[in-house]
Amino acid sequence: MGEEIAISLKNVSKCFKRYNRPVDRLKEILLPGKSRCDEFWALRDIELEIPRGQTVGIVGRNGSGKSTLLQIIAGTLTPTTGEVQVNGRVSALLELGSGFNPEFTGRQNVFFNGRILGLSQKEIEDKFDEIASFADIGDFIDEPVKTYSSGMFVRLAFAVAINVEPEILIVDEALSVGDGVFVHRCMAKIKEFQETNGTILFVSHDLGSVNRLCSNCYWLSNGRVVEQGSPVDVSKTYQAWMYDRINDGIRKKVNNSQDLESHPKTIPEIDLNSTIQGDKKTENIKKNSFTGDNFLAFANAKRFGTGRCEILSLEIQDIKGQKNGFIMPGETLILHTKIISHDRVEKPIFGIMMFDRLRVDIAGWNTSQYKYKLPAFEQGQIINVSFKIIWPHIKNDTYSLEPAIADGSQDNNEMLDWIQSPIALKSGVTDLTFGMIRLTEIQVSHTIDTAIPQELLKLNNIK
C-alpha cells in the first residue's frame, strides 16, 4: 500500500495582473478582447507531492514564490492553472497580520480563527486557556490586535495555529520576529506535532533550521522548483547560488568602477543559470571560472567562488604532525591548508566552517575573527595557513570541515573559493555528554535545611 498523500499539486501556476491605471481594469471588463495589463507569473508549473507525516522545507530568496505557494495550499489564493489537493485540516501561520482582524481583540480573533478552521464554539472554549497560556501575552489578550507588537502578534498567531488540532501546519518565516525563549517553545511544539504524524510545510531562510526539522526540501527561484531532495543537498546548492549572486554584484561594481586600470583581470562572469538547472548544476564544477582550467585539487567536491584563489589541500594533524581523522575532547588539532593565488588579493580572509551530519553549522573560525591579518596575496603564490585548536567536549559524531578563502572585510567580501564537505572528522567522547556540548567547568555544592519553614507548612495545610 502506498503512502497517504497529504498535499498534491499538479502543474500549478499563478498569474497576477498588474494595471498601470485603475480604469484599465474596468476597460478590460467592459471591452473584452484586448488585454490592458502586464502579467506577472508568481508560480510556474509547480509539481509537488507530500506524504502525510512528512516535514518539508521550502527555501528561496524573497520574491521567489514561496508565500504564494503556501497561500494556494492554505486555500487563501486560487491557482490560475493546475490542480491542488489538500487532505486534512490546514492551520497556517503566514506573513505577519494574515488571518487576524486588527480591530478585534486577541480573544475575539482566537474564536474567529477557530470557527474558520471548523472548530465548534465549545471546542474553542475548551482550548482557549491553553492557547492564552502558550501565547503568554497577559491582559493584552483582551486588547485590539492593532495595538500589539510584532512579537506579541506572532505569539498569539502561533498559539492558535498549533493548538487547533491541525493535520497540516504551514509556517512561513513568521517565527523570525519572536524572542529567543518563545522560538524555542515553538520549536519544541513543532517537534511534538511531528511525533503525532502531523504534516508540516516550513519556510525559512535559516538553512540550519530546515536541515534539523525537515526530511525533504524544495528550492524555489523565479516561481519554479529548481531543486528538490534532501535538505542537506539542497542547502549546499542554495548556499553556493547565494554566494554567486553576491559575487556577481561585486563583479559589477568592480567592472564599472573608474579604477579598472588597477585590475588587469576583472572578476569573471558567473553563469548563475548553471547553478539552478537541476542535475546540470555540477557540469562546470571541475573548471575554475577565473583561469578557465580544471581545478587543481578536490576535483569531485562541490565548490563555489570566483576562482581568483584555489584551495589545494586541507589536512587534519595531531600535535605530533601525524594525519588524524579521529579526535578526543581536550586533544590538540592542527588544520593545515595550502592556497594558490591566481590574482592579486588585497585583503585575504581564510576560514573554516564545521557542520554536523545534518549540515547544521556547529562552529566557524577565520583569520579576521581572531585578528590575524594575512598579507596581500600576489599572483602565482602558494600560501600556507594553519589553525591550532583544542578540541571541545562535543557529542560523539562525524563533522565535516569546509575551508573558504575570501577577499575583503568580515562584513563585505568576495568569495574566492569555498569547498563543501571535502573532509570529515570523527569526534569521540571521554565522559557522559547530553545534547551538543559538555560543560567542563561546573562546580556542584549542596546544603540541607533541617527545618521546614512555617509559611510552607501553612501554604500546604501540613500539620
From TrEMBL:
Q: Name one GO molecular function term.
A: ABC-type transporter activity
GO CC annotation, single: membrane
| Family matches, as Pfam families | ABC_tran (PF00005), Wzt_C (PF14524)
Q: Which domain of life is it from?
A: Bacteria
Task: State the UniProt keywords alphabetically.
Answer: ATP-binding, Nucleotide-binding, Transport
> Which intervals hold domain ABC transporter?
24-247
Give the similarity note.
Answer: Belongs to the ABC transporter superfamily.
Q: State what protein this is by name.
A: Phosphate/phosphonate ABC transporter ATP-binding protein
Organism this protein belongs to: Brunnivagina elsteri CCALA 953
Q: What is the lineage of its organism?
A: Bacteria, Bacillati, Cyanobacteriota, Cyanophyceae, Nostocales
